[in-house]
Amino acid sequence: MKISSAQEGRVRATLDNLSIELPSWGFADTGTRFGKYLQPAAAIDLNDKLADAGQVNRLTGCCPRVAVHVLWDFGEGDDPAAVAAQAENHGVRIGSINPNLFQDQEYKSGSLCHPEASVRERAMRHCLDSIRIGQATRSRVVTLWLADGTNYPGQDSIRARKHRLQECLRELHGHLSPGQVIFLEYKPFEPAFYHTDIADWGMSLTLARGMGEQARVLVDTGHHYQAQNIEQIVAWLLDEEILGGFHFNDRRYADDDLTLGAIDPYQVFRIFYEIQSYAHDSGRAPEIEFMIDQSHNLKPKIEAMLQTVMTAQELAAKAALVDFDVMAGLQARQDIVEAERRLKEAFFTDVGDLLGAWRTGRGLAVDPIAAHRESGYADTARAERSERRRASASRAEAVMPEQ
Ligand code: RM4
Ligand code: MN
Ligand code: MN
Prior knowledge:
By secondary structure, this protein is of the alpha/beta class. Helix content is 50%, strand content 11%. The protein has 15 helices and ten strands. Strands 3-2-1-10-9-8-6-4 form an eight-stranded parallel β-sheet. A two-stranded antiparallel sheet has the order 5-7. The N and C termini lie far apart (71 Å).
Protein backbone atom coordinates (compact mmCIF):
# COMPACT_ATOMS: atom_id res chain seq x y z
CA MET A 1 0.00 0.00 0.00
CA LYS A 2 1.30 3.47 -0.84
CA ILE A 3 1.18 5.59 2.31
CA SER A 4 -0.51 8.99 1.86
CA SER A 5 0.61 12.16 3.61
CA ALA A 6 -2.59 12.11 5.72
CA GLN A 7 -1.66 8.62 6.89
CA GLU A 8 1.89 9.73 7.57
CA GLY A 9 0.57 12.55 9.73
CA ARG A 10 -1.63 10.17 11.72
CA VAL A 11 1.25 7.77 12.27
CA ARG A 12 3.49 10.59 13.48
CA ALA A 13 0.82 11.88 15.90
CA THR A 14 0.22 8.34 17.18
CA LEU A 15 3.92 7.81 17.86
CA ASP A 16 4.25 11.25 19.48
CA ASN A 17 1.47 10.36 21.91
CA LEU A 18 2.43 6.77 22.68
CA SER A 19 4.15 6.57 26.02
CA ILE A 20 4.89 3.16 27.51
CA GLU A 21 5.60 2.33 31.15
CA LEU A 22 8.28 -0.25 31.95
CA PRO A 23 7.98 -2.75 34.82
CA SER A 24 10.89 -2.77 37.27
CA TRP A 25 10.42 -6.53 37.70
CA GLY A 26 11.04 -7.16 34.00
CA PHE A 27 14.73 -6.30 34.48
CA ALA A 28 15.39 -8.70 37.36
CA ASP A 29 15.83 -12.46 37.40
CA THR A 30 12.40 -14.03 37.43
CA GLY A 31 11.38 -17.53 36.57
CA THR A 32 8.58 -19.99 36.47
CA ARG A 33 7.25 -22.02 39.36
CA PHE A 34 9.87 -24.62 38.41
CA GLY A 35 12.91 -22.40 38.69
CA LYS A 36 14.87 -19.42 37.48
CA TYR A 37 17.57 -19.20 34.82
CA LEU A 38 19.94 -16.55 36.11
CA GLN A 39 21.43 -13.90 33.84
CA PRO A 40 24.66 -12.21 34.90
CA ALA A 41 23.51 -8.85 33.47
CA ALA A 42 20.12 -8.95 35.26
CA ALA A 43 19.36 -6.11 37.68
CA ILE A 44 20.13 -6.87 41.32
CA ASP A 45 18.47 -3.94 43.06
CA LEU A 46 16.11 -1.07 42.34
CA ASN A 47 18.94 1.19 41.23
CA ASP A 48 19.94 -1.35 38.55
CA LYS A 49 16.32 -1.66 37.43
CA LEU A 50 16.00 2.11 37.12
CA ALA A 51 19.30 2.28 35.24
CA ASP A 52 18.13 -0.41 32.80
CA ALA A 53 14.81 1.37 32.33
CA GLY A 54 16.79 4.54 31.69
CA GLN A 55 18.69 2.73 28.94
CA VAL A 56 15.40 1.60 27.31
CA ASN A 57 14.03 5.14 27.54
CA ARG A 58 17.20 6.64 26.06
CA LEU A 59 17.04 4.26 23.11
CA THR A 60 13.30 4.47 22.41
CA GLY A 61 12.47 7.98 23.60
CA CYS A 62 9.01 6.86 24.75
CA CYS A 63 9.36 5.09 28.12
CA PRO A 64 9.66 7.81 30.75
CA ARG A 65 8.09 5.88 33.64
CA VAL A 66 8.91 2.74 35.62
CA ALA A 67 6.30 0.73 37.51
CA VAL A 68 7.42 -0.54 40.90
CA HIS A 69 6.34 -3.58 42.91
CA VAL A 70 6.30 -2.39 46.50
CA LEU A 71 7.60 -5.49 48.24
CA TRP A 72 10.25 -6.25 45.63
CA ASP A 73 11.55 -2.71 45.24
CA PHE A 74 11.13 -0.96 48.58
CA GLY A 75 12.91 -2.01 51.75
CA GLU A 76 11.62 -1.29 55.24
CA GLY A 77 12.17 2.44 55.94
CA ASP A 78 13.12 3.36 52.35
CA ASP A 79 12.32 6.97 51.57
CA PRO A 80 10.05 7.09 48.50
CA ALA A 81 11.10 10.67 47.72
CA ALA A 82 14.72 9.49 47.56
CA VAL A 83 13.67 6.69 45.20
CA ALA A 84 11.94 9.24 42.99
CA ALA A 85 15.16 11.29 42.91
CA GLN A 86 17.14 8.14 42.10
CA ALA A 87 14.80 7.49 39.16
CA GLU A 88 15.37 11.02 37.91
CA ASN A 89 19.12 10.41 37.95
CA HIS A 90 18.49 7.72 35.38
CA GLY A 91 16.21 9.95 33.31
CA VAL A 92 12.94 8.26 34.31
CA ARG A 93 10.13 8.76 36.83
CA ILE A 94 8.31 6.38 39.13
CA GLY A 95 5.15 5.12 37.43
CA SER A 96 2.42 2.88 38.76
CA ILE A 97 2.69 1.51 42.29
CA ASN A 98 1.93 -2.22 42.57
CA PRO A 99 1.12 -3.46 46.06
CA ASN A 100 2.04 -7.07 46.77
CA LEU A 101 -0.78 -9.00 48.41
CA PHE A 102 0.31 -12.50 47.55
CA GLN A 103 3.70 -13.32 48.98
CA ASP A 104 3.23 -13.27 52.73
CA GLN A 105 2.22 -16.48 54.48
CA GLU A 106 -0.82 -14.75 55.96
CA TYR A 107 -2.34 -14.48 52.47
CA LYS A 108 -2.81 -18.20 52.00
CA SER A 109 -6.60 -17.77 52.00
CA GLY A 110 -6.63 -14.33 50.44
CA SER A 111 -5.87 -10.71 51.27
CA LEU A 112 -8.72 -8.19 50.97
CA CYS A 113 -11.19 -11.12 50.71
CA HIS A 114 -9.70 -13.13 53.57
CA PRO A 115 -12.22 -14.49 56.10
CA GLU A 116 -10.20 -13.07 59.04
CA ALA A 117 -10.43 -9.35 59.72
CA SER A 118 -6.82 -9.21 60.95
CA VAL A 119 -5.47 -10.38 57.58
CA ARG A 120 -7.69 -7.97 55.70
CA GLU A 121 -6.38 -5.19 57.94
CA ARG A 122 -2.79 -6.19 57.20
CA ALA A 123 -3.53 -6.11 53.46
CA MET A 124 -5.24 -2.73 53.85
CA ARG A 125 -2.19 -1.30 55.66
CA HIS A 126 -0.01 -2.41 52.75
CA CYS A 127 -2.39 -0.85 50.22
CA LEU A 128 -2.46 2.39 52.20
CA ASP A 129 1.35 2.39 52.31
CA SER A 130 1.30 1.95 48.54
CA ILE A 131 -1.08 4.89 48.11
CA ARG A 132 1.29 6.98 50.25
CA ILE A 133 4.30 5.85 48.19
CA GLY A 134 2.38 6.98 45.12
CA GLN A 135 1.83 10.39 46.67
CA ALA A 136 5.44 10.76 47.78
CA THR A 137 6.78 9.76 44.36
CA ARG A 138 4.22 11.92 42.53
CA SER A 139 2.98 8.90 40.63
CA ARG A 140 -0.64 8.88 39.42
CA VAL A 141 -1.60 5.22 39.40
CA VAL A 142 -1.94 2.50 42.01
CA THR A 143 -2.65 -0.87 40.39
CA LEU A 144 -4.29 -3.60 42.38
CA TRP A 145 -3.97 -7.23 41.43
CA LEU A 146 -5.27 -9.77 43.93
CA ALA A 147 -4.21 -13.39 43.99
CA ASP A 148 -7.32 -13.99 46.12
CA GLY A 149 -9.48 -16.98 45.39
CA THR A 150 -10.13 -20.56 46.44
CA ASN A 151 -8.88 -23.91 45.20
CA TYR A 152 -11.92 -26.04 46.02
CA PRO A 153 -15.69 -25.74 45.77
CA GLY A 154 -17.15 -24.93 49.17
CA GLN A 155 -13.86 -23.59 50.54
CA ASP A 156 -15.39 -20.17 51.26
CA SER A 157 -18.49 -18.17 50.41
CA ILE A 158 -17.98 -16.43 47.06
CA ARG A 159 -20.51 -13.74 48.00
CA ALA A 160 -19.10 -13.11 51.46
CA ARG A 161 -15.67 -12.65 49.87
CA LYS A 162 -17.15 -10.18 47.39
CA HIS A 163 -18.68 -8.16 50.22
CA ARG A 164 -15.41 -8.07 52.17
CA LEU A 165 -13.62 -6.91 49.04
CA GLN A 166 -16.17 -4.19 48.27
CA GLU A 167 -15.89 -2.83 51.77
CA CYS A 168 -12.06 -2.70 51.62
CA LEU A 169 -12.01 -1.14 48.17
CA ARG A 170 -14.45 1.59 49.12
CA GLU A 171 -12.31 2.46 52.11
CA LEU A 172 -9.14 2.56 50.00
CA HIS A 173 -10.77 4.89 47.50
CA GLY A 174 -11.36 7.37 50.31
CA HIS A 175 -7.59 7.62 50.85
CA LEU A 176 -6.65 8.56 47.27
CA SER A 177 -5.47 12.10 46.72
CA PRO A 178 -7.43 14.02 44.06
CA GLY A 179 -4.84 13.31 41.35
CA GLN A 180 -4.55 9.59 42.07
CA VAL A 181 -6.37 6.75 40.35
CA ILE A 182 -6.61 3.11 41.28
CA PHE A 183 -6.70 0.38 38.63
CA LEU A 184 -8.36 -2.98 39.28
CA GLU A 185 -6.74 -5.84 37.40
CA TYR A 186 -8.58 -9.12 36.73
CA LYS A 187 -7.33 -12.60 35.96
CA PRO A 188 -9.37 -15.78 35.43
CA PHE A 189 -7.19 -18.20 37.39
CA GLU A 190 -3.78 -18.74 38.98
CA PRO A 191 -2.69 -18.93 41.69
CA ALA A 192 -6.24 -19.86 42.69
CA PHE A 193 -7.55 -22.84 40.76
CA TYR A 194 -11.25 -23.01 41.58
CA HIS A 195 -12.44 -19.42 41.75
CA THR A 196 -10.60 -16.11 41.60
CA ASP A 197 -12.22 -13.19 43.39
CA ILE A 198 -11.66 -10.71 40.53
CA ALA A 199 -11.82 -13.08 37.58
CA ASP A 200 -12.93 -10.95 34.64
CA TRP A 201 -13.57 -7.44 33.34
CA GLY A 202 -17.19 -7.45 34.44
CA MET A 203 -16.15 -8.04 38.04
CA SER A 204 -13.46 -5.34 37.83
CA LEU A 205 -16.01 -2.97 36.30
CA THR A 206 -18.61 -3.64 38.99
CA LEU A 207 -16.06 -3.19 41.75
CA ALA A 208 -14.57 -0.05 40.19
CA ARG A 209 -18.03 1.52 39.83
CA GLY A 210 -18.75 0.72 43.46
CA MET A 211 -15.51 2.35 44.59
CA GLY A 212 -16.01 5.78 43.07
CA GLU A 213 -14.83 8.21 40.41
CA GLN A 214 -11.12 7.44 40.71
CA ALA A 215 -11.27 3.71 40.01
CA ARG A 216 -10.65 2.15 36.59
CA VAL A 217 -10.28 -1.29 35.01
CA LEU A 218 -6.87 -2.62 34.02
CA VAL A 219 -6.65 -5.03 31.09
CA ASP A 220 -3.67 -7.38 31.24
CA THR A 221 -3.60 -8.91 27.77
CA GLY A 222 -2.49 -12.28 29.20
CA HIS A 223 -5.39 -12.52 31.65
CA HIS A 224 -8.15 -13.99 29.48
CA TYR A 225 -9.42 -17.35 28.39
CA GLN A 226 -8.11 -18.40 25.00
CA ALA A 227 -11.19 -17.66 22.92
CA GLN A 228 -12.01 -14.33 24.53
CA ASN A 229 -12.31 -11.28 22.31
CA ILE A 230 -10.03 -8.83 24.12
CA GLU A 231 -10.57 -5.93 21.72
CA GLN A 232 -14.31 -6.12 22.37
CA ILE A 233 -13.64 -5.79 26.10
CA VAL A 234 -11.41 -2.79 25.32
CA ALA A 235 -14.12 -1.21 23.15
CA TRP A 236 -16.72 -1.61 25.89
CA LEU A 237 -14.49 -0.28 28.64
CA LEU A 238 -13.58 2.72 26.49
CA ASP A 239 -17.23 3.38 25.79
CA GLU A 240 -18.02 3.09 29.50
CA GLU A 241 -15.15 5.55 30.13
CA ILE A 242 -13.61 3.24 32.68
CA LEU A 243 -10.58 1.77 30.92
CA GLY A 244 -7.54 2.66 33.01
CA GLY A 245 -4.90 1.02 30.91
CA PHE A 246 -3.06 -2.11 29.90
CA HIS A 247 -0.52 -4.58 31.07
CA PHE A 248 1.03 -5.58 27.77
CA ASN A 249 2.40 -9.06 27.16
CA ASP A 250 1.59 -12.06 25.00
CA ARG A 251 0.93 -15.71 25.65
CA ARG A 252 0.24 -18.97 23.90
CA TYR A 253 -1.40 -20.80 26.80
CA ALA A 254 -2.07 -19.04 30.10
CA ASP A 255 -0.50 -16.00 31.78
CA ASP A 256 2.83 -16.59 30.05
CA ASP A 257 4.13 -12.98 30.13
CA LEU A 258 5.92 -13.30 26.78
CA THR A 259 6.96 -10.24 24.79
CA LEU A 260 4.08 -8.34 23.18
CA GLY A 261 2.94 -9.64 19.82
CA ALA A 262 5.27 -12.65 20.00
CA ILE A 263 2.37 -15.00 19.30
CA ASP A 264 -0.44 -12.88 17.87
CA PRO A 265 0.51 -9.40 16.62
CA TYR A 266 -2.83 -9.04 14.80
CA GLN A 267 -4.60 -9.08 18.16
CA VAL A 268 -2.48 -6.18 19.41
CA PHE A 269 -3.22 -4.34 16.15
CA ARG A 270 -6.97 -4.89 16.71
CA ILE A 271 -6.68 -3.46 20.23
CA PHE A 272 -4.96 -0.32 18.89
CA TYR A 273 -7.58 -0.14 16.15
CA GLU A 274 -10.37 -0.03 18.77
CA ILE A 275 -8.55 2.65 20.76
CA GLN A 276 -7.97 4.80 17.69
CA SER A 277 -11.52 4.26 16.49
CA TYR A 278 -12.77 5.52 19.87
CA ALA A 279 -10.42 8.53 19.68
CA HIS A 280 -11.68 9.32 16.17
CA ASP A 281 -15.38 9.03 17.06
CA SER A 282 -15.16 10.90 20.36
CA GLY A 283 -12.71 13.52 19.12
CA ARG A 284 -10.26 12.96 21.96
CA ALA A 285 -7.54 10.50 22.85
CA PRO A 286 -8.53 8.45 25.92
CA GLU A 287 -6.37 8.92 28.99
CA ILE A 288 -5.07 5.38 29.28
CA GLU A 289 -1.77 3.99 30.51
CA PHE A 290 0.18 1.56 28.37
CA MET A 291 2.20 -0.52 30.78
CA ILE A 292 4.29 -3.61 30.15
CA ASP A 293 3.94 -6.60 32.47
CA GLN A 294 6.37 -9.23 31.29
CA SER A 295 8.70 -11.76 32.81
CA HIS A 296 11.82 -12.49 30.80
CA ASN A 297 12.97 -15.89 31.84
CA LEU A 298 15.02 -16.66 28.72
CA LYS A 299 15.48 -13.47 26.67
CA PRO A 300 17.99 -10.80 27.76
CA LYS A 301 15.85 -8.42 29.79
CA ILE A 302 16.64 -5.09 28.14
CA GLU A 303 16.37 -6.52 24.63
CA ALA A 304 13.01 -8.12 25.47
CA MET A 305 11.77 -4.78 26.73
CA LEU A 306 13.02 -2.95 23.63
CA GLN A 307 11.37 -5.54 21.44
CA THR A 308 8.01 -5.01 23.15
CA VAL A 309 8.21 -1.23 22.97
CA MET A 310 9.13 -1.38 19.28
CA THR A 311 6.31 -3.86 18.59
CA ALA A 312 3.78 -1.61 20.34
CA GLN A 313 4.95 1.36 18.29
CA GLU A 314 4.82 -0.63 15.06
CA LEU A 315 1.31 -1.99 15.66
CA ALA A 316 -0.05 1.36 16.86
CA ALA A 317 1.42 2.95 13.71
CA LYS A 318 -0.21 0.31 11.51
CA ALA A 319 -3.58 0.93 13.18
CA ALA A 320 -3.13 4.66 12.49
CA LEU A 321 -3.07 3.90 8.75
CA VAL A 322 -6.77 3.03 8.89
CA ASP A 323 -9.07 5.83 7.71
CA PHE A 324 -12.04 5.77 10.08
CA ASP A 325 -14.22 7.93 7.83
CA VAL A 326 -13.77 5.39 5.06
CA MET A 327 -14.52 2.61 7.55
CA ALA A 328 -17.75 4.33 8.60
CA GLY A 329 -18.84 4.49 4.94
CA LEU A 330 -18.03 0.82 4.38
CA GLN A 331 -19.89 -0.14 7.53
CA ALA A 332 -22.92 1.92 6.52
CA ARG A 333 -22.97 0.12 3.18
CA GLN A 334 -22.33 -3.17 4.98
CA ASP A 335 -19.38 -3.88 2.73
CA ILE A 336 -17.95 -6.52 5.01
CA VAL A 337 -15.27 -7.72 2.64
CA GLU A 338 -13.82 -4.30 1.89
CA ALA A 339 -13.99 -3.24 5.56
CA GLU A 340 -12.01 -6.27 6.64
CA ARG A 341 -9.60 -5.79 3.73
CA ARG A 342 -8.82 -2.26 4.96
CA LEU A 343 -7.78 -3.63 8.32
CA LYS A 344 -5.67 -6.41 6.83
CA GLU A 345 -4.08 -4.00 4.38
CA ALA A 346 -3.05 -1.67 7.20
CA PHE A 347 -1.77 -4.58 9.26
CA PHE A 348 0.40 -5.87 6.43
CA THR A 349 1.78 -2.46 5.39
CA ASP A 350 5.44 -1.99 6.20
CA VAL A 351 5.77 1.02 8.51
CA GLY A 352 9.50 0.49 9.08
CA ASP A 353 10.50 3.63 7.15
CA LEU A 354 7.99 5.79 9.03
CA LEU A 355 9.22 4.48 12.38
CA GLY A 356 12.81 5.03 11.29
CA ALA A 357 12.06 8.60 10.23
CA TRP A 358 10.26 9.29 13.52
CA ARG A 359 13.28 8.02 15.47
CA THR A 360 15.78 9.93 13.37
CA GLY A 361 13.73 13.08 13.90
CA ARG A 362 14.20 12.65 17.63
CA GLY A 363 17.88 11.93 17.44
CA LEU A 364 17.32 8.23 18.13
CA ALA A 365 18.88 5.25 16.41
CA VAL A 366 16.67 3.69 13.73
CA ASP A 367 17.11 0.26 15.36
CA PRO A 368 17.15 0.56 19.18
CA ILE A 369 18.08 -3.12 19.66
CA ALA A 370 21.11 -2.84 17.39
CA ALA A 371 22.06 0.42 19.12
CA HIS A 372 21.79 -1.28 22.50
CA ARG A 373 24.00 -4.15 21.34
CA GLU A 374 26.59 -1.70 20.05
CA SER A 375 26.48 0.46 23.18
CA GLY A 376 28.33 -2.05 25.36
CA TYR A 377 25.77 -1.44 28.14
CA ALA A 378 25.06 -5.15 28.61
CA ASP A 379 28.78 -6.06 28.85
CA THR A 380 29.40 -3.42 31.49
CA ALA A 381 26.31 -4.51 33.45
CA ARG A 382 27.35 -8.16 33.21
CA ALA A 383 30.85 -7.46 34.54
CA GLU A 384 29.85 -5.00 37.24
CA ARG A 385 26.83 -6.96 38.51
CA SER A 386 28.69 -10.29 38.49
CA GLU A 387 31.34 -8.68 40.64
CA ARG A 388 28.75 -7.29 43.03
CA ARG A 389 27.07 -10.72 43.29
CA ARG A 390 30.42 -12.35 44.11
CA ALA A 391 31.17 -9.71 46.74
CA SER A 392 27.81 -10.07 48.45
CA ALA A 393 28.08 -13.90 48.37
CA SER A 394 31.47 -13.76 50.07
CA ARG A 395 30.16 -11.26 52.63
CA ALA A 396 27.32 -13.66 53.40
CA GLU A 397 29.83 -16.53 53.77
CA ALA A 398 31.93 -14.47 56.17
CA VAL A 399 28.86 -13.85 58.36
CA MET A 400 27.77 -17.50 58.26
CA PRO A 401 30.90 -19.69 58.15
CA GLU A 402 30.37 -23.19 56.79
CA GLN A 403 29.60 -25.79 59.48
C1 RM4 B 1 0.10 -11.13 38.05
C2 RM4 B 1 -0.42 -9.84 37.48
C3 RM4 B 1 0.16 -8.63 38.14
C4 RM4 B 1 1.62 -8.75 38.44
C5 RM4 B 1 1.90 -10.06 39.12
C6 RM4 B 1 3.37 -10.23 39.47
O1 RM4 B 1 -0.18 -12.20 37.23
O2 RM4 B 1 -0.22 -9.78 36.09
O3 RM4 B 1 -0.05 -7.48 37.37
O4 RM4 B 1 1.95 -7.69 39.28
O5 RM4 B 1 1.48 -11.11 38.29
MN1 MN C 1 -0.49 -7.80 35.13
MN1 MN D 1 -0.12 -11.69 35.03
